[in-house]
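TASK: fixed-backbone design
INPUT:
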C-alpha cells in the first residue's frame, strides 16, 4: 500500500486535510481510522463528511456503533467498532449491507477488526498525537490501495 505522513498543528489543519481527502473519495471506498482516544478520529470524519456535502452534525457513533448520513452528495456510513471484537460481529450489525458501493464507509478503531485490511478499496488513516510538541500536533499517516492518487494532500 502506498503511504505518506503529514503533520498538523491544529484541529483546523486536521479538518482541512480530511476535507481535501473527502473531495477525492469515491463511492465504494472504505476509510479506516485508528488512533488513541482524543487523537481526532471523529474530527477527521467531520472533515470528510463536510467534503461530501453533509451539513448535519457528525458525531461519534461509539454507543450506536453506526451513524448514517444521507444529506450529502454521497451517503456516509460511519462505524465505531471500539466495542466490537470480530468481523462476524461487524457483519451481524449490517456492515455488508452498507458495503454495496453506493456510499463511503468510515470505520473508527478499525485495528480491532484485522480482516478490514483486506478491503479492496481501502484508505487507511492513522492519527497519532505527538506528545511533547503541542497538544494539537498530530501525525496523520495515510495508506491507500494501488492506483489511488492522493498527491494533492501533501
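OUTPUT:
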Amino acid at each position: 500500500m502506498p503511504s505518506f505522513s503529514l503533520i498538523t498543528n491544529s484541529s483546523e489543519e486536521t479538518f482541512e486535510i480530511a476535507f481535501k481527502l473527502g473531495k477525492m473519495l469515491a463511492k465504494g471506498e472504505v476509510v479506516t481510522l485508528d488512533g488513541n482516544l482524543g487523537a481526532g478520529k471523529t474530527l477527521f470524519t467531520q472533515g470528510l463528511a463536510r467534503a461530501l456535502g453533509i451539513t448535519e452534525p457528525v458525531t461519534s457513533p461509539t454507543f450506536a456503533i453506526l451513524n448514517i448520513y444521507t444529506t450529502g452528495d454521497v451517503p456516509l456510513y460511519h462505524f465505531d467498532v471500539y466495542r466490537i471484537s470480530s468481523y462476524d460481529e461487524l457483519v451481524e450489525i449490517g456492515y455488508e449491507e452498507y458495503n454495496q458501493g453506493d456510499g463511503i464507509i468510515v470505520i473508527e478503531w478499525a485495528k480491532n477488526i484485522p480482516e478490514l485490511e483486506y478491503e479492496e478499496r481501502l484508505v487507511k488513516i492513522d492519527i497519532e498525537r505527538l506528545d511533547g510538541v503541542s497538544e494539537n500536533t498530530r501525525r496523520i499517516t495515510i495508506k491507500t490501495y494501488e492506483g489511488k492518487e492522493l498527491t494533492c494532500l501533501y
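COMMENT: Residues 11-24 form the longest helix (14 residues).
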